Amino acid sequence: MSTDYQRAREELGRRLRELRAQSPRGGLTGTALARLLDWPQSKISKLENGRQTPSAEDLRAWVDATGHPEAYEELHARLRGFESHIRSWRRQLAAGQRPVQEAHNVAQANATVLRAWESSWIVGVLQTPDYARAILSSFAELHQTPRDIEEAVRSRMRRQEGLYDAGRRYHILLWEGALYARVCPPEVLAAQLDRLMGAVGMDTVRLGIVPLDAPLRLPPGNGFWIYDDRVITETWHAELWLEDADTLATHLRVWETLHQSAAYGADAQRIISHVRRSLGVA
């Protein structure tokens, strides 16, 4: 998560704490406010410490319970200001690609259920070093950024430690076309497909492949990740970190819809094997 984003969330939390402490009821404790709202006390703590993003409904309930209904518009304006956070590639990559990889490492490490849809390339958490090197090099050339490719590759590989965390679950969907994409030399792609074959059997990963000839209720569209309650998606000029409830619900519906067209287990492995054989690489 970006520093600016987290700082804004912490500022909102401090404002919520002020409103609670300055309640006309004589100053509410967190426990008392939780009781009034019928919320877990942990939710009060997370909101006030910037560890959870409130919904508009949460803000309305908060100002009513603390006796400050006039503060709602101010709080809602703050929420709208950071619930959609656009991070331009030009700004992000000014210091190279490693910091971007590190930001995703932190975000994934803080999530327990991760869902992905990707229609263009193999997702980073399942990439081989050589495949990652090819992808990162192409983007460094596109955006004319500092060439810290090896540091970025090492950072991306560290992300894969999460695959061996029994408390984390990855639900990953790939469009079959992404397996064919020649974004790297054939021998690199062959090794990458071998890596995918192994991922099918991991107990923390459920890997689905959406076949090219599968009936689709939605077009493939752009790729995205859902880290618990946060959506991350990319355009050619920016990366979007989105947390508003409507955006999250929409992306969950998209993921579930595409999931219905996916092949899993042995069927997914057969698709990967077919693509692997088409490369003609031993």
Describe the structure.
By secondary structure, the chain is an alpha/beta fold. It has two domains: 80 residues, lambda repressor-like DNA-binding domains (434 Repressor (Amino-terminal Domain), Orthogonal Bundle), CATH 1.10.260.40; 194 residues, Endonuclease Chain A (Endonuclease, Chain A, 2-Layer Sandwich), CATH 3.30.870.10. It has 13 helices and seven strands. It has a seven-stranded mixed sheet. β6 and β7 form a beta hairpin. α4 runs antiparallel to α5 and α11 packs antiparallel against α13. It is elongated, with a radius of gyration of 22 Å. It starts with a helix and ends with a helix.
N-to-C span: 42 Å
Number of helices: 13
> Oligomer, anyone?
single chain
Kindly provide the radius of gyration, computed on alpha-carbon positions and rounded to a whole number of angstroms: 22 Å
CATH top level class name of the largest domain: Alpha Beta
Mean pLDDT: 92
Summing up helix and strand content along with how strands pair, one would put the structural category as alpha/beta
DSSP strand tally: 7
**Structural domains: how many:** 2
What is the topology, as strand order, of the major beta sheet?
A: 1-7-6-5-2-3-4
CATH architecture of the largest domain: 2-Layer Sandwich
Low-confidence segments: none
Strand content: 5-15%
Instruction: Report the CATH topology name of the largest domain.
Output: Endonuclease, Chain A
Overall body shape = elongated
Helix content: 40-55%
The SSE string, one letter per element, is HHHHHEHHEHHEHHEEEEHH
How would you characterize the largest beta sheet?
A: 7 strands, mixed
At the fourth level of CATH, the homologous superfamily of the largest domain is: Endonuclease Chain A
